[in-house]
Amino acid sequence: MAHAYTPGLKVLHETKIDKERRLPLKGTVTVEKGQTVTPDDIVAKTDLPGNVQMVNVANQLNIDADDVKDAMLAKVGTLVSKGEMIAETKGLFGLFKSNVTAPVDGTIEVISDTTGQVVIREAPIPVEIDAYMTGFIKDVIPEEGVIIESEGVFIQGIFGIGGESRGDLAVIVDSREDEITEDMITTDLAGKIIVGGSFISLSAYKKAIQIKVAGVVVGGFNYYDLEDILGYTLGVAITGSEDLVTSLILTEGYGKIRMGSRTFDLLKEHQGKFASVNGATQIRAGVIRPEIVIPLSKDELKGDHKDVHASEGIQAGSLVRVIRAPYFGRMGKVVDLPSELRKMESETMVRVAIIEIDGENVEIPRANLEMVETD
Amino acid sequence: MKLRSILATDCGSTTTKAILIEHIDGEYRLAVRGEAPTTVEAPFEDVTKGVLNAVMEVEELAGRKLLDGDKIITPRNGDEGVDVYFSTSSAGGGLQMMVAGVVKGMTGESAERAALGAGSIVMDVLASNDGRKPHEKISRIRQLRPDMILLSGGIDGGTTKHVVELAEILAAANPKPRLGQNFKLPVIYAGNKMAIDKIKDTLGEITDLDITENIRPVLERENLKPSRDKIHDLFMEHVMQQAPGYKKLMSWTDAPIMPTPGAVGALIEMVAEKENISVVGVDIGGATTDIFSVFQKQFNRTVSANLGMSYSICNVLAEAGLKNVLRWVPFDIDEKELTNRIGNKMIRPTTVPQSLEELVIEQAIAREALRLSFIQHKSFAVNLKGVQKERTISDAFEQTESGESLVDMMELDLMVGSGGVLSHAPRRAQSARMLIDSFLPEGITQLAVDSIFMMPQLGVMANIQKEDLAEEARKAAIEVFEKDCLIRLGTCIAPVGAAKSGATVLTAELTLPGGSTETHEIQLGEIVRIEVPYEPVKAKLTPGKGMDIGAGKNETIETTIYGGVVGIILDGRGRPMPISTDPKQRISDLTKWSAAVQEYPEMDKE
């Protein structure tokens, strides 16, 4: 049977979710294999090397670089405090001395007799990694981190901003076509992950940030409004490090696009449950999509999930979503995958799929389809 | 060594492309090509799998055995296998470098030129005078984690203090390479030779330090080749060793693997040298746009890291501004709706334009990406800065400074475009228009596109150092480039100068293949396409009053030009080319120009 590989976003009602939590540098893992964890538990920690300050002692004392060693009061390896004198000239008969003080607290690391520079390294910066989601430690990567496993709902969005966040799910619209407006953002939503339908306006999102909503999951947002939030124009879709109280996850894209029905129904089914979300997106080779994880307890799991093999690709009968004009955002069923190239209105010759959308068969380039991966 | 059969691959970040070149009837020709997804990332993490898949496709199409299990059969054994195998690579993000020089505009720029010429992406240029404090430089180095650093600074025998200071900053940052946690970062020192001992003291322990000749031994001369060669060596020895599967791939190839853009540059340099012409080559990709040029025998390459057609399409919009994109769109469109559409292309980068409207918008953005990349290129491809020139009395009136651009569009002979939006445009006239509108060639310029982007593979063949292979591989590269790689679009003739509305800017008397003659009078603001295949056309070109087509104002040129799949384009729209700010006028002009060259299907009906 004809089939085609089309990357899709995951919308899974029950699956095993593995999360790697890794330190940027080697350090200590603080949990053990098999241990259960909650999102705020620290699983690993380390110290990043401190910042470095360079002080040009030769210039400041107006002496040759060769003479800096003799003028130094603090030697390599000594701890110095901010404002402490670290070098001094002998002056004339003990008078007219000039000196250099440490600009920061730190350790003298290098004294150079070529350039007359002194390198002071500040104290190490502690870094801690938390568990992000409820689960158990499936594996420990010695000195580096852990892999946490959880079972529950896993939904991928298409684009997000803001990093990791968590809170109780609150679906605040009636249908997947509804927009989130400013008046719907009430103070009781602080700390929650709110779910809307097709769109959130700039003013509504700003209000969500103002009252410290933990996250927003919605179909669409205007691309040109991102600048207002980020303070710059987003040129490439690499996000996650923005300093935002309220992470934003778009499930469909830019503009007003109703949320996929499966996504919306699944989020609604779990109204009130605790979810972990991450807006981080990276659209390059090694793609990262934003995500919503709702860990479920043993009693809540139905145990009816099937393994999904995305790599099998689309075939007749597959459920797909069109991801470019003119049928952008519409869902349909694959009727046929003809092998020969077809000419589009743009005269581009492409391989197409015949899709049934609302009872009508249309030709869509396979590259413009996304498989809806459901379980 | 006589070669009968050559296999070459290019491992790109998404696709691995293989070509098979065969020596048939006394000439080298492209026999077949194949491609497969690149397999550098999980779950495969072995580049050779993608290579084998691509070669397997070539094997099927060629109808003869090239693989023996998981190995390419080389040397050729009767009807099986190939004589030699070569490869280029840009997978896994290509070669990412950081360069440092004492003065940003002098040694910093020379170091950048060497790194770009070798085919790398330059992540940052550190310089003593770049305005950043030492701790800012240190945190930048740590944050970027380059594959390699090129450190230069100072002319031989000059002061050593500044370059050693840069080395101390590098040492304080103690950078780790991007790939391979347990390895030391390769650092190339190509600065003042008097500082070598101090550099060794400072960096010898904590980095994998390599010393080569000074990149700028004297102010008046750049010496880039030793650094470029060293970068290629270290790319093979370090970076490639860490990338998944490359050790195996390296053991298969008959010459070192080159970074893809380095190979394309080598090819363009070779073509310019062989034909003694000025060339501009452009490769517009999803994330970046590379421009290569050879003017006055000097090669330059620039990478516009965030000007591309998918991953960085929104950055083109941000840098060019919506107005500049819209000026190429011949219909009214809601501006907000347009930005959302472009945003959606960024987050779904693999989609293709189905409707004509979408195609027109994409090609409008491409024009701006190309235009902006070329501006960057022009400001980088310059004479050496900081050089004192001897002046005569006449020069005193013409205050040209050092550091002026080498790019002279009137001097340009050949422009080659590649990358999806140019190579795969549904109509070749669209590719020609995109090249003309964004680069604004002046006088007589030949236009071409790379049919299937095989310039990287041909480039690596053109750059073989092994004596027994070099000559024949080079010959094969040139022959295939001429016959199979380039699709000749035709020739653009564009007069330059100030003319009044309605004035004739060019009279072209053409003797077409077959002997018939045609005369075309071009008015200001007009563009005309004459369909002629890639054959010689005798041309007498007379510029309008005050206009220049290459021989000077009002000077007629009699020459031979070539047609192509598009033909000859007489472009009387002026340089610079004004586009009306009145939407009605703009749409009318754009529609007229499109119709004149049969650019889009709907325009034909008019």
Please, could you describe this protein's structure?
The complex is a heterodimer of chains A (375) and B (606). Chain A is mainly β and 375 residues long. Chain A has three domains: 8-24 and 148-295, 3-Layer(bba) Sandwich (Glucose Oxidase, domain 1), CATH 3.50.30; 52-121, OB fold (Dihydrolipoamide Acetyltransferase, E2P) (Beta Barrel), CATH 2.40.50; 306-374, SH3 type barrels, CATH 2.30.30.30. In chain A, 9% of the residues lie in helices and 42% in strands. Chain A is built from five helices and 30 strands. Chain A has helices at residues 57-61, 68-71, 202-210, 226-230, 261-269, and strands at residues 3-4, 8-22, 28-29, 36-37, 42-48, 52-56, 79-80, 85-88, 99-101, 106-111, 117-121, 125-130, 135-141, 145-156, 159-161, 164-171, 179-180, 193-195, 199-200, 215-221, 247-254, 274-278, 291-295, 314-315, 319-322, 331-336, 341-343, 349-357, 360-365, 369-374. In chain A, the strands form six sheets. Chain A has a 17-stranded mixed sheet that branches. In chain A, strands 6-11-10-7 form a four-stranded antiparallel sheet. In chain A, strands 3-5-12 form a three-stranded antiparallel sheet, with no helix packed on it. In chain A, a hairpin with a 5-residue loop joins β10 (106-111) and β11 (117-121). Chain A is elongated and about 100 Å long. The model of chain A is unreliable at 1-5 (pLDDT under 50). In chain B, β14 and β15 (298-304) form a beta hairpin. The longest helix of chain B is centred in the middle third of the chain and has 25 residues, at 356-380. Chain B is built from 19 helices and 24 strands. Chain B is α/β, with parallel strands linked by helices and 606 residues long. Mean pLDDT of chain B is 90; it is low at 395-401. Chain B has an eight-stranded mixed sheet, with helices on both faces. Chain B has a five-stranded mixed sheet with strand order 3-2-1-6-12, with helices on both faces. A five-stranded parallel sheet of chain B has the order 8-7-9-10-11, with helices on both faces. Chain B folds into three domains: 5-90, 2-Layer Sandwich (Nucleotidyltransferase, domain 5), CATH 3.30.420.40; 94-247, Rossmann fold, CATH 3.40.50; 280-381 and 404-604, no CATH class. The interface between A and B is large, with 50 and 58 residues.
